[in-house]
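We append the chain.
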Amino acid sequence: MNYKILCSDLDGTLLSTKSDVSEFTISQIERIRETTRVILVSARMPQSMTYLQERLGISRQPMICYNGALILDGEKETFSEVIDLKVLEEVYRLAEIHDIKLGLYHGGEWYVEETSERVEKEINYTKTVPQLKKTAETLEVWKASNVSAHKVMLMCTRASADALFPILASQLRNQIHSYRSNDTLIEIAPKSVSKLSAIQTLLSSDESLADVISFGDNYNDIEMLKHSGCGVAVANAREEVKAIANYTTLKNTEHGVAHFIKQHL
């Protein structure tokens, strides 16, 4: 197979552990990176992606952050879309009813009200540290500065996620993308963006989606895999993701992306 661009999700896909790529993955990316653009596509914030770019030797390539809401090319911001602040305030109101804490992300900033087991896990996995501030205060500062979130993470219990997710999907379906990254986490992005839309933004005049091979594992990867020239799911992917993929490779913990690259690219 020959493709001009390789796009890969990180958590549960390219990462063999919670926070790093394997030496085998590094070697396979190194083998193709002179002829294939390798672009990381993630819900993560920039600082939790740049160290992986460096590990893979692809720092010269752009990266897609926050599920497509922010695209960076080195230090240059080439695309940015945020959630409408009034919509964000409504998300906060609904979360408060269900006693759910928010993580708010804008550019290189991450705000939480307090530390918790979930927050500590994120710090460990992503190698970034949040600022501790009341959500209401953050929203007031943002309102005064005409700023809003590229992404919101709702840190729930399983029961509260079960209760809130259908409400978000129903009441705010025209304003936001919402998906469950696991049983206790709901992630929210602007409605107008996706991983697929971000990839399309980065295509040059002589490139199309047919030139893209993409890898993923979760609901927010479905569009990307479905519309790429070749969409590959890892074996640990959601069943819905595997159902639309052209191929399924090994699990992320078994370096599935690297094995597929070695065998097919």
User: Anything to note?
Assistant: The longest helix spans residues 158-171. The longest strand covers residues 176-182. The radius of gyration is 18 Å.
